[in-house]
Amino acid sequence: MVAELKNYIHEQYYFRLRLGVAGLLVLSLFALLASRFYYLQIIQYNHYQTLAENNRISLVPTIPNRGLILDKNGVVLAHNFFVYTLEITPAKVKNLENTITELGQLIEVSTLDKKRFKKFREQSHSFESAPIRTHLNEIEAAKFAVNHYRFPGVEIKSRLFRHYPLGKLGSHMVGYIGRINDKDIENLKEDGVYSNYKGSDHIGKSGLEQFYEQQLHGVTGFQQVEIDADGHAVRVLSSNAPVPGDNLILSADSKLQEIAETAFGERRGAMVAINPKTGEVLTYVSQPTFNPNLFVDGIDTENWKLLNESLDKPLINRPLRGIYPPGSTFKPFVALAGLEAGKRNPPFAIQDPGFFMLPGSRHRYRDWKPSGHGIVDMQRAITISCDTFFYGLAMELGIERLTSFVRHFGFGRRSDIDIKGEIEGLLPTPEWKMRRYKQPWYPGETVIVGIGQGYTLTTPLQLAQATAILANNGVAMKPHLVTKIQNGLTGKQEFIPSVVQDRIELNPDNIEIVKRGMIDVTLPGGTAASVGANSGYSIAAKTGTAQVIGIKQNEKYNEHAINERHRDHALFIAFAPAEDPTIALAVIVENGGHGGSAAGPIARKVMDYYLLGKLPAVEPTIVAKPPPANATGTAITTEEEFHD
Amino acid sequence: MACLFFSLLLSLFVLYSASGEDFSRIYAQGINVTVALGVMWLAANISPLNLERAARPLYVLGLLLLISVALFGTISHGARRWLNLGFMQIQPSELMRIAVPMMLAWYFASREGKPSPSNFVVGGVLLAIPVALIMKQPDLGTSLLITSSGFYVLFLAGLSWRFLLVASISLLALMPVFWTLLHDYQRKRIEILFDPTQDPLGAGYHTIQAIIAIGSGGSAGKGWLNGTQTQLDFLPERTTDFIFAVFSEEFGFLGNMLLLTLFSLIIARGLVIASQAQNTFSRLLAGSITLNFFSYAFVNMGMVSGILPVVGVPLPLISYGGTSLVTLYLGFGILMSIHTHKKLVAT
User: Fold this and answer.
1) What pLDDT is attached to residue A392?
2) A432-A438-A440-A442 Cα dihedral, nearest 10 degrees
3) What is the dihedral of CA B73, B75, B80, B86, to 10 degrees?
4) SS3 letters across A201-218
5) CATH 3.90.1310.10 in chain A, residues?
6) Contact B84, B74 (CB under 8 A)
7) What is the chain B residue with the closest CA to A53?
8) Nearest CA in chain A to B220
9) Residue A155: pLDDT above 70?
């Protein structure tokens, strides 16, 4: 019994020892847990706190309303409206193909829609919704709403769509918006404004929409939304309202724009009219135009092909990017260069034999009038566009002096208008030629620069700006389309001040001579007499013709014999009223033939409306393309009008 | 006892939050608790002597059931764990949680004097058979826990230190072998333990979200019903195996310490009962049940806080679920019985 008890006590002691060991194990492992909790909850608290918040709170951007674009009279050129779209979130749909097929049975889904959807999907994440149909009508929306339960991951949304109510009118000026692509994202990041584009999927792609993107876009608002693990919003924690974009108010008048575009008819070309005193752009025409609404939601291949491959190149922004030799419209500037250099000042005059020859050369630089103009002084040289006179003047001035003078008028450099993509044009110099062609400058090349031919290239905008500078007696105002920016929230308008770009020191007498010559252009005896007929205000102008293909020596230019697209471009610059100009313009009609007859009437209609509020007489048909064989012939009434 | 009831109350509060303020869950758990308390009361009234007698038949019954599971069990989630008796589904492995330590305790109690090495070999075999059957289901978590409960008996019965040393060394050495024996998903869980980010939305998701929940709880927690991870569905299985994350998130480090303290007190009480028990069977059984409770608590909290691989082990007293609760309270009932009968045996 004692042994048993002893044994028992021993056993119990032994057991308790073991229990103690186990208890220690328990304590140490619990201590391990405690330290783990300490690490997670105390030391790493901030880290996990952030993670939990990120899990929980999602910032949902609220896209601001894009600013409107209005003409000077408040006519809407670009606005927004809500449309119903049917959107699929690919990540939430099991079988995308089936879903689309089934949707197609419910409401119409065209192949075009499918293509666009595919494009959208490639550009976005699978957890973002992409529209399979846009512009749902109410019946379609209702149809889907009833069947919504059958389509998890598909929902009706309302998206804000940009719309250009005037369609094709002024589309190169207004521009358009399109979907943000990788390049845009890169640019936005570079400008440090990408965060403002969270949720936005459109951005200005051209024209004013592009240039004023920052003002038009507005500031994106945010909603702090608590979300659950499936991404569903549970409640809004806080919100930050978006600030709508600013409205743009233009100096252009849509009525004037319409008159100008209609005046072009089917013809290709460009026209820019500027108020020379302020630099405000009054019309901005690039013909043919396109419908910007096509681009808003991604243009389809068919329409894109049609626009992109058209020989008429409707997508080219001609005033900015069309380059043309200025032809005889260059002469007033050469004339001024001469007068300012003390060459050809009255009473200097030449006897024009109908051609010009360089000393020691037999090459004849022909005048447009083979028989010559007789005795010609500076003023008359402008009026009748005497080539011979300017050949000699250019030669005497020399290429460097000539180009460095006319550069002040904006040739060969950007005007800094508020549309992107402007090209510089070209004022040739010997250095340029050496760089470009590794060839020396030949004197003969100087001769033809005198009449705006050769290497010289200008854009219609440059030509209009040069005319405006001349009209404003050498004071260059920066051209701009937007005159006021209206705050999208307060409606307060901010005026865009007119900026003096350059002040050219000119002798008023010299300006007077050039202007007189130009006024005479639209008077009987001038090259555009018909343009000035019965105008009721005085017009200073200059016609021009730019050769599309070179004419060989002793070969006569026959406009009917050559392909329509190889015909000369018709140019016309003008300002009015000549004594105190409020409008200066340049018109180019591609392959139009003669400046006075093809481009002049367009300018006249614009000036009539702008200065007198006079609407153009309704014409039965605008000159058809190609013109009938006798069209030009019958239009010529006087030799003067048949310029150059 | 007080600790137990406090834990119980805590459990209902946490569950209320975890289930998304769903009273039906609380109601169901209430029934579970009631049943479990009933079972506990019954067990508390069975004398250890009768328990000792019941050990063998219970063990044999359990084995038979396990074999039937292997032959006719219903498959759910890729594992054959349940046995359909027509009127109810049972999980025989749950029974074995109690039956195995009882059987081992009986076996060592029936040997006179200091157990010989051969006794431990027999004990090992008695343990290995059910564990092998359960592992085959497969149910790694339960088989490991039953192994540990059996091991506690062996350890408390006086398994030699030398053997323990040799065994743990060989266990370490055999790790690579075990690795190849594991199922793919089990292997994955262990890999995830070391780097949860390798599959953040798949196998690692549970762990990552649980750790975020725990960590974001901070020192004092986000407050009851305010755990964002929980309330916004980021946390999976939050009423059952991962309920500890809910608790941690809402009550923070202080809450965790409280829970650890409660558990420690329960374990301490159990160990005291074991040490005061008057015969070998009661001693071994009480010790094993207590330490097994510890295993559950440690493994669950360890897995939720990311220091142990994810195994399907509920947090004792807190997690939702009937069977495990009943088994647990059955264990407590036995402890009570051992406590109340200590003097009876002594005299």
Assistant:
1) 93
2) -80
3) -30
4) CEEECCHHHHHCHHHHHC
5) 59-250
6) yes
7) B228
8) A41
9) yes
Percent of chain A with pLDDT over 90: 47
Q: How far apart are CA A175 and CA A488, in angstroms?
A: 20
- Do A18 and B158 count as a contact with CB atoms less than 8 A apart? yes
How do the domains of chain B map onto residue ranges?
1-45+182-347, 54-181
Q: What is the pTM of this model?
A: 0.62
Q: What is the CATH number of domain A265-285+314-635?
A: 3.40.710.10
- A150 or A519, which is more confident: A519
CB B320 within 8 A of CB B239: yes
A237 near B CB under 8 A: no
Contact B219, B253 (CB under 8 A): yes
Delimit the CATH 3.40.710.10 region(s) of chain A.
265-285+314-635
Closest in B156, B214, B234 to A229, CB measured: B234
The per-residue pLDDT for range A349-385, each reduced to its tens digit, is 999 898 998 888 888 899 988 898 999 999 999 999 9
User: Across the interface, do B248 and A37 touch by the CB < 8 Å criterion?
Assistant: yes
ipTM summary value? 0.84
Q: Which residues contact A543 (CB under 8 A, 6 or more apart)?
A: A328, A329, A385, A521, A527, A528, A570, A571, A572, A594, A595, A596, A599, A600, A643, A644
Tokens 């009570």 label which residue? B336
For tokens 């020596």, what's the residue? A553
* Separation CA B240–CA B236 (nearest Å): 9
Choosing from A200, A206, A328, A597, which is the catalytic residue? A328
Query: Cα separation of A179 and A26, whole Å?
Result: 64
Q: Which residues lie below 8 Å from residue B193, measured CB to CB, with a gap of 6+?
A: B207, B306, B307, B308, B309, B310
Q: 3-state secondary structure string, chain B?
A: CHHHHHHHHHHHHHHHHHCCCCHHHHHHHHHHHHHHHHHHHHHHCCCHHHHHHHHHHHHHHHHHHHHHHHHHCEEECCEEEEEECCCCEECHHHHHHHHHHHHHHHHHHHCCCCCCHHHHHHHHHHHHHHHHHHHHCCCHHHHHHHHHHHHHHHHHCCCCHHHHHHHHHHHHHHHHHHHHHCCHHHHHHHHHHHCHHHCCCCCCHHHHHHHHHHHHHCCCCCCCCCCHHHHCCCCCCCCCCCHHHHHHHHHHHHHHHHHHHHHHHHHHHHHHHHHHCCCHHHHHHHHHHHHHHHHHHHHHHHHHCCCCCCCCCCCCCCCCCHHHHHHHHHHHHHHHHHHHCHHHHHC
Count Cβ atoms below 10 Å from residue A1 Cβ, excluding itself.
5
pLDDT at B243: 84
Q: Which residues pair with A543 in a beta bridge?
A: A572
Mutate to test the interface with A, among B193, B216, B288, B315 (most CBs of A within 10 A): B216
Class at the top of the CATH hierarchy for domain A59-250: alpha beta
How far apart are alpha carbons A58 and A238 in whole angstroms? 11
Tokens encoding A570: 């018709």
User: Cα–Cα distance between A228 and B228 in angstroms, integer?
Assistant: 9
Query: Is A328 considered catalytic here?
Result: yes
Interatomic CA distance for residues A534 and A612, integer angstroms: 12
Pairwise CA distance, residues A185 & A204, whole Å = 12
What type of residue sits at position B199?
Answer: D
Count CA within 13 A, CB hemisphere, residue A145: 10
Beta bridge partner(s), residue A84: A136, A158
- What is the rounded distance in angstroms from the CA atom of residue A112 to the CA atom of residue A118? 10
Enumerate residues 241 to 300 of chain B having a beta carbon within 8 A of any beta carbon in chain A: 248, 252-253, 256-257, 260, 263-264, 267-268, 271, 274-275, 280, 283, 287, 291, 294, 298
Positions of chain B with pLDDT under 50: 345-347
